[in-house]
Specification:
With 194 residues, the chain is an alpha+beta fold. The chain has helices at 18-21, 24-39, 81-85, 122-126, 152-162; strands at residues 64-66, 91-97, 105-113, 132-134, 149-150. It has a domain at 57-162: Alpha-Beta Plaits (2-Layer Sandwich), CATH 3.30.70. The chain has 5 helices and 5 strands. Bound molecules: iron/sulfur cluster (2 copies).
Length: 194
């Protein structure tokens, strides 16, 4: 693509006035957000006697699980997309030829270092078959680092533990809240879809 290609829409950096150059609008915006949170109602939960409630478990990113398919097999097809997307490099997969005729590969081993994970949810987003999901289990404890290395069996057991309260999204589980309709910024309007 050449710089004079008509498909390119060049965007000029907006000129800042004196207030903008002194960051005053940004500071005011930050203070408004702080004030809004100061005034918002607070809820204190006496954990562990009381457990917090999540209206929609999908807004929480807790312990991972590996989902099972309808035949109780691991749903994962060992495509490595989650491991590739993971910014903390805490997913380790060993793929092998699948013993089942409906897929090429399956994970011979699948390990997540739960202590290294930053619970960003990128693995869940990347998975093409919804095999990995983050649950609302948050009180994760272990007495050693080894205990916090979740292998395939442990990840499948998290699925068994949570499947009734948090069904898989693709099987009618709770859906994330619909994003608010956003007006695209002026400079992006009219840009051809990628
Ligand atoms: S939640 Fe984020 S950091 Fe944790 S395993 Fe998934 S992609 Fe990696
Ligand atoms: S969990 Fe999903 S993204 Fe990760 S290897 Fe398995 S199928 Fe691929």
């Amino acid at each position: 693509m050449q710089p004079d290609d008509p498909a390119i829409r060049w965007v000029r950096e907006p000129e800042l006035g004196l207030a903008g150059r002194m960051y005053l609008p940004a500071v005011f915006q930050g203070l408004t957000t702080t004030a809004r949170h100061l005034m918002a109602p607070k809820k204190t939960v006496q954990f562990p006697e009381e457990r917090p409630e999540f209206g929609n478990p999908l807004i929480y990113r807790g312990v991972h699980r590996l989902n099972r398919d309808e035949q109780d097999r691991v749903q994962c097809v060992a495509c490595f997309l989650c491991a590739t997307a993971c910014p903390a490099h805490c997913i380790d997969i060993v793929g092998a030829e699948s013993p089942w005729p409906d897929r090429e590969k399956y994970p011979q081993s699948f390990t997540i270092d739960e202590l290294r994970c930053i619970y960003c949810g990128m693995c869940e987003e990347a998975c093409p078959v919804d095999a990995i999901e983050l649950t609302s289990l948050f009180d994760l404890t272990g007495r050693s680092r080894e205990e916090m290395m979740f292998d395939k069996e442990k990840l499948l057991s998290v699925y068994d533990q949570t499947k009734d309260t948090e069904p898989m999204r693709t099987r009618g589980g709770p859906q994330p809240p619909a994003p608010a309709a956003a007006t695209p910024p002026a400079e992006s309007r009219g840009r051809p879809a990628p």
